[in-house]
Amino acid sequence: MMYFKQESENPSFFYDFQMDVDELITNIFWADAPMINDYRYFGEVITFDTTYKTNKDCRPLGVFVGLNNHRQTVIFGATLLYDETIPSFQWLFETFLKAVGGAKPKTMLTDQDPAMARALSIVMPETFHGLWTWHIRQNSLRHVNHLYQQSSRFRGDFEACIDLHEEEGEFLNAWNSLLVEHKVSEHSWLHTIFQFKEKWAWAYVRKTFTAGMRSTQLSESFNADLKNHLKSDLNLVQFFTHFKRAVNCKRNNEAEAEYDSKHKLPKLKMKKARMLIQAGDVYTPRIFKEFQEKYEEYKNTCIKELEGGLYAVTNYDNPKERIVMGNPMSKKYPCDCRTGRALVTTPFLFY
Fold it and tell me: What is the count of structural domains for the chain?
């Protein structure tokens, strides 16, 4: 409490805690001013993780994490939990929303904790709850490792079910083939994970904006930083001090990237492309690099205008036809691939 009161001299510093029946502190949440401000800019898609244990009692540290405009890890808030039950998670998510002014994320990615999923459905029913595909892959190695050992094709078939199949029917056929060809037993972990397919299979998740975060456990890099600063025998005050140091390391990385973006010119692959020149002035180097790659893909596309404001688009590298729906009134041109957001400047660029 002394540490929090000291920090709360900044009026934008937020903290809250939950008491048990014996008036002892159980769950704690805090977010400083930069965390809350970062959430306003980058909180559309967030991840939450409690895999890191902070002390010898193995109390879980939970961290709300996202990506900034340099695609670097940014922290939105943190919690020390007494346990990982539905009431604890429900209190946490309600407190988190209180800290950020009630603004709910569009997408939240977590592991497969059922208590967390239930609490999230209660507090943020409008938020899409997705599962990290990174975590699913790790679990598959633990639960069905024998299938990897039995057949060299299993990995490719399973990966395709996660990331490649775009249509539901295509995914379901591939999944059934996976079960038959690899002789998956009725009690296999694969049947369990299939029950949550809408949270991880690309055929379903592609309809939701995930900012390219579904395959990455962002908190892993932050947890690695924490291990450089934390020890199991630290008391709480020491923990908060070291945690703040780890967060400041991330912010220093952001400051360096921001400096570079303002003082280094982007590398243009096409010198006379005016759109690239304009984008280079607006985007950070990391985002501009991705934009330029998409621009190169666009140069290899073939576009055919159809009736009713529709366009058929194919790419020499990927001949699958895409349908783009033009809406001149709103100046938006969404594509049926649904892998990103269409640029409003032209119907022939998709990102």
Answer: 4
